[in-house]
User: What shape does this take?
Amino acid sequence: MTTPSHRAVSPDGEPASPTAAGPLTGIRVLDLTSVVLGPVATQILGDHGADIIKIEATTGDMMRANGAARNLGMSSIFLAINRNKRSLAVDLKTDEGRRIALEIAASVDIVIHNMRVPAMERLGLGYEAVKAVNPEVIYCAATGFGQDGPDRNKPAFDDIIQAACGLVGLVGAASGRPEYTPSLVADKLAGVAVSGAVLAALVHKARTGEGQYVEVPMYETLVEFVLAEHMGGMAFEPPAGPAGYARILSGGRRPSRTADGYVAMLPYSPKHWADLFAHLGHAAVLEECDIGDRFKVNSAVRMLYDRLNEITPARTTDEWLSICEELDIPATRIYNIEDLPDHPHLKAVGMFETMDHPSEGKTRFVRPAARFERTPMSVRLPAPSLGQHSRAVLDDLGYSAEVIEKLARDSVIYLGDKPPHAGEEQQDNL
Assistant: This one.
């Protein structure tokens, strides 16, 4: 199999011809999202080749101000989740701004937003309004909570969803104190779910010609995610025991201290444990813990890890990795995020790439992970500056230069030609 390039960017940041078209080439998306959830979803579609028109408020997506930055409005987080998009900065609270958005909505295949549904309807950009100008549209609402429940209009951000879905309690189970996961897992997982749902709707449209309304609620998505392994006894009616995956919640599963640091080892099967303790000359541990099948290993996992962790400080991390490789036991040294660009495997597969950004200079990014033999994903555009493509998008719609300038003077649009006030909070998001 050939390994296609993931990059196709010209020096000025405009699209260059990729070596092959992505699977969504020709699909157009109106991106009415901001913060993290929605931008993750639309970036995935953009990486697959779709043309993403990102409408931002004239003050910009609030994530432009969050994270490390060289210049105002171009934060590290914004750069990471907004590539392959064109930025049109529009005040949607004006009649002219709404009209522009509806004109674009009439010409695209997909519309995605992550505002609260009543806010979208107040803007005149709800599903019925968009469907009226584009009957075959796929319209996806990435909501905080499902719209048929009592929490449908509550604001939802990552911390809130982590807490509500049980994840905070799980992370803090060992310490007895609730803890957030130090990653925006709710936002990012829901973003991936949005992209998958939209792609499924696109397959249906290809078969039937029918568009449809799609809702992906962040809360329900994370509940489904968390309970995949943690339903436990709740999987049966009446319950057959407590909820939770005992093997994970037992408290034994943790990195092991070595003579020079820590190592992550995962003896998973009864054979793994038997081989490991036999190799170490501690076969008696197997009899002490009474393991012989998967169910006994699950119930004894804390005791097994306790015995293992009494032994691990006697050897170095490299020695333990060598032992695990010999016994075919999953193991790795523990990497900090700063170490990842130098991870031997990630270097070998070219996971980190660089590009020359028109305003930010040389930047580093993580390439799309998936590989396609025939229709490769690609990075064609770096994350745009606010309003970078306002003029070009309106020109495509047939607006004259004079009208575009007047819209800019009236503050309906922003053309990217003066310092932006990026990052001001947009109260209607989620």
Q: What stands out?
A: The chain has a mean pLDDT of 91. The radius of gyration is 25 Å. The first helix runs from residue 37 to 47.
